[in-house]
Sequence to fold (1190 residues):
Amino acid sequence: MSSPILVADSVRKVYRTGSDEVVALDGVDLTVAGGEFLAVMGPSGSGKTTLLNCVSGLDEIDGGRVLVDGLSIHELSDSERTKHRAREMGFIFQAFNLIPVFTVTENVELPLLLAGMKEHDARARARATLARVGLGHRLDRRPPELSGGEQQRVAIARALAGRPRVVWADEPTGNLDSEMAAKVMELLGELHKEGLSLILVTHDPTVAAHADRLITVRDGRIVADEPLGTAPVPTTVP
Amino acid sequence: MTFGAIGICVLLSLPFLYVIARKPVLRRMAFRNATRRPREAALVVVGSMLGAAIITGSFVVGDAMNASIRQVAHEHLGPVDELVLAPDQATWQLLSGRLIWLRNPNVDGVLPIETMAAGVSFYKGGRVTSAPSSQVVGVDFPAAGRFGRDAGATGISGAGPKTGHAAITSDLAKTLGAHAGDTIDVSAYGSRSKLIVDAVFPRRGIAGFNLGQQQESRNVIVPPSAFDAIRGVASAYAAPPDYAVLVSNRGGVEGGVARTAAASSAIRRAAAGLNPQIVEIKRIALDQADATGKGFTQMFSTMGSFGVIAGLLLLVQLFVMLAAERRPELGMARAVGMRRSWLVGAFATEGWLYALAATLLGTVVGIGLGRALVAVSEQAFNTEHNQLRLYFVLRPASLAESFAIAFVIALLTIVFTSSRVSRLNIIRAIREIPEPPTQRRRRWIVAGGAAGLLGAFWTVSAVGSTEPLGLLLGPTLLLFGLAPFAARSSRRAAGRVSALAAAAVAWAAVAFALFPAAAEGAPVTIYVVQGIVLVGGAVMLVALQQERIGAAIKRVNPHSLPFRLGLAYPLARRSRTGLTVAMYALVVFILTFITTISHMIDRQKADATASVRGGYAVLVDSSAANPIPVGDLQAYHGVRAVAPVARTSGSFTVAGMSKPAPWNLTAFDDRFIRNGAPRLDDNGRFPTDAAAWRAVLTNPNLIMVESTFLQGSGGPPNFKASVGTAIRLEDPTTGRSRDVTVAAIAPQDGFIASGAFYGLNGARQLFGARLVPTRYYVKSARGEEPTSLASSIQGHFLDNGASASSIRDLTNESFRMTTQIFQLFEGYLALGLLIGIAGIAVVMIRAVRERRRAIGTLRAIGFGSRVVGRSFAIETAFIAVEGTMIGASLALLTLYTLVTNSDAMGDVSFSVPYVPLLVLLVGTVAASLLATVAPAVSAARIRPAVALRTTD
Fold:
């Protein structure tokens, strides 16, 4: 087994609303190996997205420790953590979250420019990545001009263009129809086969079925952790 | 007017009051939305109140000017409504005898009065103080106290001083430092009398009687018997006293004006055969107060209208922002069954609440602004040779009117915007999907065709008649009408519409240069329309070409991510950027316009001084009762030559006037020309200035006036005298008149106030013996310093009431006052900048809210918080710079075409005030950046996980 890309140790996250406290993550321990495809499932409000945000460094934690590729990300300053995200991570969101005033190419080249790549090289890489996800013919369109599936493929291209060590995906197929969702998952599967570490939050068992391993979260805790690949893939969404 | 204004407000409010009273659901929506986010509500109210403040401020300034001039009428005239002039003492006595028995229901007082110019001195403790420009007023004290049945309004009390005694006005007492019991010396007609001051009267009514425009009245008031004793023996060079009978109408100081026509008829009947000249002096004074007040209100509101329009654009922005934030809620409201009209009703009712609060607050702020403007104006108007005390007054009618204007404008904008924002697709609104561009091509084609036809007709008729509004708007409308046709083919739509917008800008900039006759006498509002057309066209052009502009700017720093991000949004959101750019451009346009005009006029100072002074260095005025003998002045050390001129006030009538208006007249002789008369602005059909001066001297049918002749003094609206203008000149005392023609245009001479120039012989035929030279143009000896020479002459000829000044100092003082007034305008207009800056703050606050998720994404993929903050600063700077550049460059272009192609601006030459403009532009951009600090910081602080959180 390769060295872990993620180690979460007793991670705790509490949301405070006035005098109320909601424990969103309650001492979560999790290790993900490099090149592994991990799916996170659980009912609504169980803490899946919070787990993803906390272990990726998007959100602060209230206790515990998170190592991404050996680096304790919550001990970094905001600026260092931001740079680390730009260099080592890619993100895919349910709502695509593309910048509407940038063209497709400009959206994809953003993280490359952030990482300090020359503009010419960044543009070439962005175009190549877009071609890789099947959008070579939509380079100069703006996101509102694309379908949902195309927008999500742009988001995947943006996440991959910087050749990150790990990609975090939060409900990447949540806004897509089943046909589009299947195409997107097929693409992610191919990328994973090429060695990409992928941590994906989903409600959908058909999506989770593409992963190597599935963890289930309930009430801020990991209640199940099982390898996949041999398990049968349900044909309908419950 | 008050009730009318309030009535309009109430009428327009009725639908909203109905909603509040009878539609509980809409009322709840309106009230709860208005109070749900107090900070947003405060932003809307504060943002929209600035327009109301600008409007109210302009009304307050106009009222102050009106009240101040009315106060002069109270102080100098009191109960006097008509002034019946007599050419000499004998006629006056006959006239007095007739009128004193006048019994008429419109008249409640008749008072004979005689006045003569005098110099007054006061010796105390080895120190001499003097008041050269004073007058002796001869009047029967008990009769004066009863005059007009209002003892308080006459300023006179008591039985009158005995022989060797006099009463003086508080102004004279203050100038001399004299009190009751002191002895003063009064010099008139070569005789000097010592008088003991019995009483000091306030400057009011008969005591303050003065036909001059200055607020002060330095009067020595004596009974008629003493008046004759003081007068002594008149020299051949002195003007005789003025004899008049004052008439008071029933109805108080201002109320009696309504009876002026009837009283004048009664006077004319009573004085039949004596041919009296009746001057309706109170009506003239009050008309002038109204005209000046309205003029100031119009001037400030016209200039302020740029700020008001910017305020409306801000209001639209604010409302669209509110609607955008509430789109899902509005969508849901429609989804559960709310009709669109209800939605408009709820939104508009909320807007009505904002408009009401904003207009009330704006009116209060406007009163404060007006108070400040009045205080600063008073400073500007009070110089050595010009005193005007301004009275701050609040007229309920004006406040109601300004409130109504601001409220109606705000309300109409809100209703229009509410109607627009309520047009939404329910699903798109709920799911926060952007609305696609509207496809109303057919409607646009029809509207464009109609506008184009209307524009074409208007253009044809305006070119023929050089009507300024049609000349400006006709072609603009035609071009606007062509836009939908130009946009039919989507491939080249932007280029074609851009060309039309560029043509509209070019036309608006050069229209008056190509048709200078249209600009002659055009109302000031035409320049507001010109500014709006220019800015509108330029903003449209820029909005259509944003991609190219952005591409060019990006080349400056192609690798900077904040630069790229900062430019992306304003370049993509054309309408919103256009609105904000227009706000900046409008305000900066008028500010640049005023700043540049002020600069160009100031630069003209040296040239103007040279024109006005001709070959002379010093101007000396002396008492009409004891003028300086020319030989004495000629022999004075440092004096090389002297040209005496006679000054009087004539009555002038030009086409379009039903009654004559007073204007100064200076009568000159050959000496004035010989030593170098002023340089003319236009010498008409004469080959040289000297030839024009000589023609006017020798031909009594010719006259010379300045370009501002009769402006602001009863002349026709927008009147501008030019060579060939026909004028009827009349002596107000005798009624003798002559028709004359303008032969040339003299320079404006500010405080010298020469008025019209006319040959002395011709003037004597009209004005008779009363016209004596009392003013002297002095040519100084080589090396003599004019200011010192003036001071020395004034001291030497004190007994002659000499008042001497260097001509250069007089013109400089006049320019200083003009500059200060322009600075006042600039300060007032700068208020409009606050609107632009508030606008950019609103846009940025809105941007932070709208882009919360996008900012979260950028932060997630590795954008640092500083990069996000910097991108906001770049976005602000881009909009502010674009707006200020458009406004400034269009203002300069307009002025350049005006100055170089027409004579609307006189002799000024085009010049750019680089430093003030740089300060204005840099200051505007810097203030805008400051206004963006808060939203930029809040954007930078957005935590990615919080911004992106959806569930879990």
